[in-house]
Amino acid sequence: MNFRTALLLFLFFSGSVIGQNNLYLIDSIKEIKFYFTQPNWKHLLDSLYIDGQKERLTASVSIDGQYYDSVGIRYKGYSSVNITQIKNPFNIKLDYKIDDQEHQGFNKIKLSNVIHDPTFIREALSYQMARKYMPASQANFVNLYINDTLWGLYSNVEAVNKDFLSNHYDSRNNSLFKCNPNSLNLFGENSNLSLSHGNDSSDYEDFYTLKSDFGWEKLFNLMDTLNNHPNFINQILNVDRTLWMHAFNYSIINIDSYIGYAQNYYLYEDNAGRFNPILWDLNMSFGSFRLTDASSYFSGFSISQAKTLDPLSHYNDISVFPRPLMRNLFNNDRYRKMYLAHLKTIMEENFSNQSYVDSANKMYSIIDQSVLIDTNKFYSYLDFQNNLDSTVTNIIDYPGIKDLMENRLNYLNNYTGFNHTIIIDSILEFPNNLSIGDDLWISANVVDANEVILFYRYDNSGIFQELSMLDDGTQNDGIAGDFIYGGKIPNIGNQTQYYIYAENDSSGQFSPKRAAYEFYEYMIPISSGDLVINEILAINNNVIQDEFGNYSDCIELYNNTNSTLCLQQLYLSDSDSNLLKWNLPNLSIESDNYLILWADEKADQSNIHTNFKLSSNGEQLLLSNEMGYVLDSLNYPIQSTNVAYARIPNGTGNFSYRTPSFGYNNDFANIDDLNYISIVCFPNPFENHLKVSFNNKSKSLISIYDIHGKLINQKIVNLQENEVIFNNSNLQKGMYFVILNNFESSYIQKIIKH
For a disulfide at 95, which of 101, 322, 556, 696, Cβ 3.0-4.6 Å? Predict the structure, then answer.
């Protein structure tokens, strides 16, 4: 049975994550208590900060009455820390001494001291709005006690760490950078992604902090493409997510960000190989920070100027140091219109309807008494009461949030690109009752546009492809010129996601308006035989390694269809009494391709590691959907060391003992086949270039696959050849497989990329 969800709210912070905890719920104030044994604990923390050390002081911690031992505490941040003040911000590491110690799934907690915000709510309110449009941290409020003395009311902001990445990007070990300079230069480069140095990572360490095991080469590639080949930037940068970030920062005058001095954001590489910007440090949003090197505002700007700050300032004005993440994107006319469309959506959904006032008033009512009794706060209770509506002066002028945003809304409503609205409605999908591999037609009524584009993809992690929708009477669009536009999405899989973008000479419009964070979705249930368990290895002593270099039990899934299959809401289990034992990763498998999973009871390592192992004595293995319908199953017998149990023919046949062939066709792998070929890969491990030498007896095919079974590179070699050289400079660190196939027999060689 085919079905369609009218609108998928594609929010990586979904209820499946948030519903399991209440650490960041906004409707109440959390309580955290530190218990230090050292009476001079503050002096010790001050000393660690002065010395620039990342060491922590050990304490016992209570979180809403739950106690944790041996927790690591240190100060967090830079400008908000001062050893002369009582109320400093804190970084709490629950698993500092005790492995896997966490609270409701979180092992790190960050408390901000609200030093630059008389309202106390700027950070929580900003993150609440941002999460409508992009992955962003959760935030709420905490009353902090130290040795049972009330220390004050803090902002509690979710850390951007591996758990955050896993929840939002379905991966945790890809390249991650924190983009904050070690020393902020008000008229300098900072973390602006300029290609100002060579390709030596040491030249960039002052501006970017690597938070993953690898990534410098990828960051350099991003900067090179952004500055020298911007027409190709969409291949390695999530441009839409970047436009949303810029739109959000400009809407609420969050200048302490990339649009100010190029800082306070992260970059994370998703499973599609594209970097995604992630917001950070919103405590000075709503105009509290008013410094930028855009030429019109070298010396900063006033609250009055903030209300009418041009959202294209860094495009129209000259910066002291380039801002390529803005200028080079805005040079593209379409990207510029998309950016303004996002900005308009933010203003409509939060400020035109006054919803931000309702949220702000709710937060005020929750924290009012805690602000009143906070004796260490940086502003008076009267400042707190007044700053939501009007300007408060304390060292600097802090604009009233309502006053700022009411005037900003009036200004932007008259901005070019805001007042020429395109209408997109009456979106239809046809025909009905499609099967995997069929074509899906989309039509929509679009008024006042001169170009309409349909963006689509077949899984959650893929890059949206685009095609033109036409009103010419040939695209299932009615008659020519009737404002009904049509387009065809070819060869759909079980999951098809799409949105529509239209533009005219002055403006752009999305449907749904929050695209591509939200989109429309067409779903087709996977049937038996579409996706199968294709091969298992229950005793893996030295055959194949996972991404961590371990020899673990492994399972191969194979896509039998001619279309991409998404694994969302599919499950693997070794028990028919618990079919939903392990949720498959939110990944996809292309047609005639494979996914290798590691059955090692280490599901916390990455999304391709299951929470169960394979029994060498034989057991069952079941693949099911969320309704508990079994799509494929295997009852396997006793297994032997380093011998696979695989389908012959590949994908459809019965199981038999075979030479392991994970990531490629089982038909070419038998235990006796390997004597016919010898192959040497050098160097191994390798960095960029890999030489493959062999004794070839016939025309052969040499292929390189990653651990997921994805084809990376391939060359055909003739009889007279005995070696080939592969350039794998673009590959990330990890394990791969070289497969030589002479169409009679095959050989697999494991290789490692430094």
Answer: 101
Q: By the 8 A CB rule, do 313 and 294 touch?
A: yes
Do the beta carbons of residue 703 and residue 696 sit within 8 Å?
no
CA 662 to CA 224: how far, in whole Å? Answer: 36
Question: For 422-522, CATH number?
Answer: 2.60.40.10
- pLDDT tens digits, one per residue of 597-627: 999 999 888 889 999 999 999 999 999 999 9
Using DSSP bridges, classify how beta strands 30-35 and 139-146 pair: parallel, antiparallel or unpaired.
parallel
Instruction: Tell me the C-alpha distance between 488 and 437, whole Å.
Output: 13
Identify the DSSP state of 303: H
Q: How large is the C-alpha radius of gyration of the chain?
A: 28
CA–CA separation, 642 and 495 (whole Å): 36
Question: Of the CATH numbers 3.60.15.10, 2.60.40.3080, 2.60.40.740, 3.40.640.10, which one belongs to the domain with range 673-753?
Answer: 2.60.40.3080
Q: How far is Cα 434 from Cα 439, in angstroms, rounded to an integer? A: 8
Give the domain 531-662 fold.
Immunoglobulin-like (2.60.40)
pLDDT in tens, 219-277: 999 999 999 999 999 999 999 999 999 999 999 999 999 998 899 999 999 988 999 99
pLDDT of 11 strictly over 50: no
Per-residue pLDDT at 661 exceeds 80: yes
Q: Helix, strand, or coil here: 93?
A: strand
C-alpha–C-alpha distance, residues 56 and 741, integer Å:
55
Contacts of 289 (CB under 8 A, 6+ apart): 116, 254, 255, 256, 260
In this structure, are residues 578 and 137 in contact, taking their beta carbons and an 8 Å threshold?
no
Residues in the chain: 754
- The structural domains of the chain, with segments of one domain joined by +, span 15-161, 163-352, 422-522, 531-662, 673-753
Q: Supply the pLDDT for residue 294.
A: 72
Give the torsion sign (CA, 700, 555, 13, 143): negative
Of 630, 612, 524, nearest in space to 568 by CA? 524
The order of strands in the sheet holding 689-694 is: 679-682, 689-694, 723-727
What sign has the CA pseudo-torsion 239, 245, 248, 251? negative
- Assess whether the region 422-522 and the region 531-662 belong to the same CATH fold: yes
| pLDDT single digits (tens) 153-177 | 999 999 999 999 999 998 888 999 9
User: Is the preceding omega at residue 399 within 30 degrees of 0, hence cis?
Assistant: no
Query: From CA 537, how far away is CA 28, in angstroms rounded?
Result: 50
Give the tokens for residue 537: 């290895």
Name the token pair of 464. 């949206």
Separation CA 113–CA 157 (nearest Å): 11
